[in-house]
Amino acid sequence: MTEKFTFTLHATDGMARRGTVSMPRGDIRTPAFMPVGTAGTVKAMYPGQVRELGSDIILGNTYHLMLRPGAERVAKLGGLHVFANWPHPILTDSGGFQVMSLAQLRKLDENGVTFQSHIDGRRYELTPERSIEIQGLLDSDIQMQLDECVALPSSEAEIERAMRLSLRWAERSKAAFGEQPGKAVFGIVQGGDVPRLRIASAEALRDMDFKGYSIGGLAVGEPQHVMLEILSITTPVLPAEKPRYLMGVGTPDDILESVARGVDMFDCVMPTRAGRHGLAFTRFGKVNLKNARHAEDHRPLDEASDCPASRDYSRAYLHHLFKANETLAAMLLTWNNLAYYQQLMAGIRGAIDERRFEDFRLATKAGWARGDIAPL
């Protein structure tokens, strides 16, 4: 541990990077996957379970927490780490993405965005300064600038307008954050699917000298190959000595391919959301436990796994739990999925350390393609 926020690069293999983000509340081994704890909890999981699976950091959502229970209340109760019983690093997003996607009757201008809560209709204003203030009240370790994320496809003019606004908000967010030893605010690269805008955004943010850089506005409707093309031109522009965080991504395949393009940190609701809907991620690929073919399959999801949810319960039992709408179904599948994601990240880190990432990438994809389907 350290009293400062630092990033140390230990190894590279092609564009893939192995490093450590260090801060007072702990170290983050990169490449890292951050489970999403939207409202101060990783759904269907105990905090201790999340930690035991290998998670060094979780994500909290500014929009949801500002609406309920309120940032001032969380601060009064000791901050999000105390409130959620998670004494390790926490990253918070700015709230901007949820405002754009969830809020009602929103109005955006140069100052920020005003909106009505999707919960009770109350009116709020979110500016770059207020977003940083809320994240400070939550006491998160890594905070995000407020930005505007446009859905794809959009016109190039609209993408550029939002990117330029996000750059102005980046300056204001950084100024509002000030100097906070041991913590960091990240700038967010925007620019949609337009290469010149992505490069311009990355260059401008680099000149602002953030402690870390996020890549936003991807996995918002574009095909995977477009996302990967944008990553390939964006990451080389960002400082090699700073961490790079791809926001809201993604599938195991997205993660593998993004690591190959120089990304260090990821978050996504996919493993938890999929778990609540009967979909398991495994080294054999995806398994839909709602499918009738599993009704008499005595095999576990993965008998070689260290995770009890993956190893100790039959597919037939998991299928039954979902058919019976039992809460345990979501708990076990979420446990399995987060275990697999963290096992994948550990495998990636080890492969980069040993300069065999490309072999690992190909072998992992081959395992997914081969599958593990029992005969009918």
TrEMBL record:
Molecular function terms, GO-annotated: tRNA-guanosine(34) queuine transglycosylase activity
Q: Where is this region: RNA binding?
A: 248-254, 272-276
Q: In which pathway does it act?
A: tRNA modification; tRNA-queuosine biosynthesis
GO BP annotations listed = tRNA queuosine(34) biosynthetic process
Q: Cite the tRNA-guanine(15) transglycosylase-like domain residue spans from the record.
A: 14-362
Q: Would the keyword Glycoprotein be found if you checked this record's keyword annotation?
A: no
Q: Which reaction does it catalyse?
A: 7-aminomethyl-7-carbaguanine + guanosine(34) in tRNA = 7-aminomethyl-7-carbaguanosine(34) in tRNA + guanine
Q: Which UniProt keywords apply?
A: Glycosyltransferase, Queuosine biosynthesis, Transferase, tRNA processing
Similarity comment: family membership: Belongs to the queuine tRNA-ribosyltransferase family.
What functional role does this protein have?
Answer: Catalyzes the base-exchange of a guanine (G) residue with the queuine precursor 7-aminomethyl-7-deazaguanine (PreQ1) at position 34 (anticodon wobble position) in tRNAs with GU(N) anticodons (tRNA-Asp, -Asn, -His and -Tyr). Catalysis occurs through a double-displacement mechanism. The nucleophile active site attacks the C1' of nucleotide 34 to detach the guanine base from the RNA, forming a covalent enzyme-RNA intermediate. The proton acceptor active site deprotonates the incoming PreQ1, allowing a nucleophilic attack on the C1' of the ribose to form the product.
**Any idea what this protein is called?**
Queuine tRNA-ribosyltransferase
Q: Which gene encodes it?
A: tgt
